[in-house]
Amino acid sequence: MTVLGGIGFTSPWLLLALLTLPILWLILRAVPPAPIRRRFPGVALLLGLTDDETVSDRTPWWLLLLRMLAIAAIILGLAGPVLNPSEDQAQGDGPLLIVLDGSWAGATRWSDQEEAIAAQLTRASRAGRTVAFLDMARPQPPVFQTADAWRSRLPGFRPAPWQPSAAHAAQAVSFAATEGGFDTLWFSDGLDYPGREAALDAFEAKGGVEVYQTAANVLALSPAGFEDGAVQLTAIRAAAGPEREVTFQANGRDPAGNASILATATASFAAGETTASTALSIPSEMRARVTRFDLQGQRSAGTTTLADDGLRRREVALISGTENREGLPLLSPMHYIEQALLPTADLIRGDLRDVLPANPDVIVLADVATLAPAEAEELGAWIDEGGMLVRFAGPRIAASDVSRIDEDPMMPVRLRSGGRTVGGAMSWGAPKKLAPFRETSPFFGLQIPDDVQITSQVMAQPDPTLAARVIAELTDGTPLVTRKTREQGQIVLFHITATADWSTLPLSGLFVQMLERLAVSTSATRPDAVQLEGTTWTPELVMDGFGTLSDAGTLPGVPGPDLLNAPPGPDMQPGIYASGDRRLARNVIEAETTITPVSWPARIPVKGFAVPPEQPVAGWLLSLAILLLLADVVASLSLSGRLLGNVNRAAMMALMLAVPLALPDRASAQSAEEDIFALDATAELTLAYVKTGNDRVDEISQAGLRGLSDTLFFRTSVEPAAPTGVDLEMDELAFFPILYWPITPDQPRPSSEAYVKLNEYLRSGGLILFDTRDADIARFGASSPNGRKLQDLAAPLDIPPLEPLPADHVLTRTFYLLQDFPGRHASRDVWVEAAPPDAEQVEGMPFRNLNDGVTPVVIGGNDWAAAWAVASNGAPLVPIGRGFTGERQREIAFRFGVNLVMHVLTGNYKSDQVHVPALLDRLGQ
Fold it and tell me: With 60 as the cut, is the pLDDT of residue 647 above it?
């Protein structure tokens, strides 16, 4: 490509044809040879006459100029002019290697990078260059292909949730060494990493290198911690800069199970600083719902930190068989348990029957031997639903007959009478120590301090199932901790007391770690590799470079130490990992992670992503040439008097000039728009919604009616067209059988003319579905802003008396048999036109004898459009409830929508007696 005056030309040699324009000008202006003069006597009769039409003996200058412009446009168009031509490496003629850092650091501006790469592919395609891609985060041998082949695969590139490593860079160097010469375009994410300089040297050895990267500072989010009753959040940035404020978002599920932002907090980077911290104080119940923290305005795995058990304080109920009547803490049977759990759990104290309604995560019984039958029944039901019962032995259990002959349902094993003590009948010669934990034990990998000694315990009866239930034992093989599962819950027994009377275990840090392994408590500090030694963690959810979580599928488990120490990569993907009942988050950014901005040598040109796209204009120029030549034909015919017979040339020229300048009549244009609107609305059945002025609400209304239209298409004989929004002030309403009207507090009240149209619509058989969308916080009425707005909007409407939708209303059976009418919310407060006072149920009929009218309004607040809303690919847009229950609620919402449309289209025909046998059969009567 040759660039002249800021415009590139793909075939610049054609511009030489412009030199012929002066010659063409002279040729077109050439005058034919003068005629031979012959005297003819009869010419004397014509003397004194004038000709109204004269023909020039030369071509007018403006017509010559028109022809010259047409020819020039043709020449310029064939020369291939291009605006914003590139003069960089993409304009070479050899192979081109496009290198991507491909890490999370570029995820926020990934779309900008894609546009810049697409522009480079266009230039390479025009130059006929082959192109290859090399992703530094996931290096593969480069394959050089045509730029057009890569353009279709460009959307398949996605950022990885990790940065390139030294091993990745070494692979890239080895791949480059096997190729011949090529130029390199490096799209950097802005962060430095090991091996980058070596890769740069390898690429420079093959040809020119240019770098593209954004000037924006890279942000990241350190893992959240819990300290002093608040969540500690810290943001970091790659390079120091001016003061800047960032907003942290705590995301999770609200009480209805919908994903939402639960809390926000702000922090500021001081000028010249690279960290900004804040403390977010939220209630423990809400904190337990948090699944992730994000930085507002950022979309990357590095600005997302996942929450795990470290932020969730479990509720633990403590129940003791004896009270500390002397008031000495060290003598309390619960003192050591309280000290172990208080920093990391919410403790509940009280009687067993008092704490069970609170549904704690764990119940601890310290030396409680016998339970009343009612207590045992309620406790068993709680365990079966997933609760954990942790029991500690003591003098009461040792002296009781609990679980002696038959295994007690509240015990993991059978027990021997009495106990075992140093110097007793079943004595040891000396205190015993704990044996190393088995691989199958949840305590496997924990280090046992030398000073932990056992002096007394209750003994387990030998039993075929005993070996499988032992999770901790002494050096002589005596069981110390046993566990069994019961339905979805489990029962654990420590065969020693919770005090220091029978052992020194409650005095050691091992006691706290054992409770953590049992998930009785959650550690406020992240465990270290030693604590995770011997554990295997299975990925449940993994995170991509954009910070989006997805199911881990069949990814293999990883050893506990690797979960903490191994760098993120294909074999250690960030996400949520599980081991038993515990959950641990592996984030991209850890507490010790630092990010460093990249620094390129002065010899390397660095550009931003905002590369102006090349714009070929050959098509525009050739189109202009065609128009100019058409104008030349019209002008030539007009000058020769052969255009439309004897029409005055001056009038024709005025008409030619007037046509381009004529403005369309506004009234005619408006009438045409109304005609088009009417044709579109009446060509097929169309569902409509009232535009509120709130873009988000209108988008949900459009998507909701689209989902309902699809459901009608697949399940009924109704085949609706795409839904449309109506402007109450401008559009005709009579074309639509039903209007969905979502209520927002700030939508304007229609004009009096609009209310005239609305009342005519209601009287002519139309139906308006008013939806306040707030049934989760307010019932139907004026108790909410949306309810008050509905009363204001509906006051001028001619609405008949209303009543709650009765069980025998035709809406309950027009297509599906329904008794509930949920949307995103599941309130039963749905109001319709009241039945006539004389509507009575005839004997033998399952419903009253109602007239054939259609209720003109249906009023509710269940946010039906959100439940119906689907994307263009048919996927639901708004989550409803949880799991199967939520999807069932969405299905009932669709059925209500089908019934509503069928009711509008058919009236109350299902009230006819001819339908009674079929309805009675479906109702099971």
Answer: no
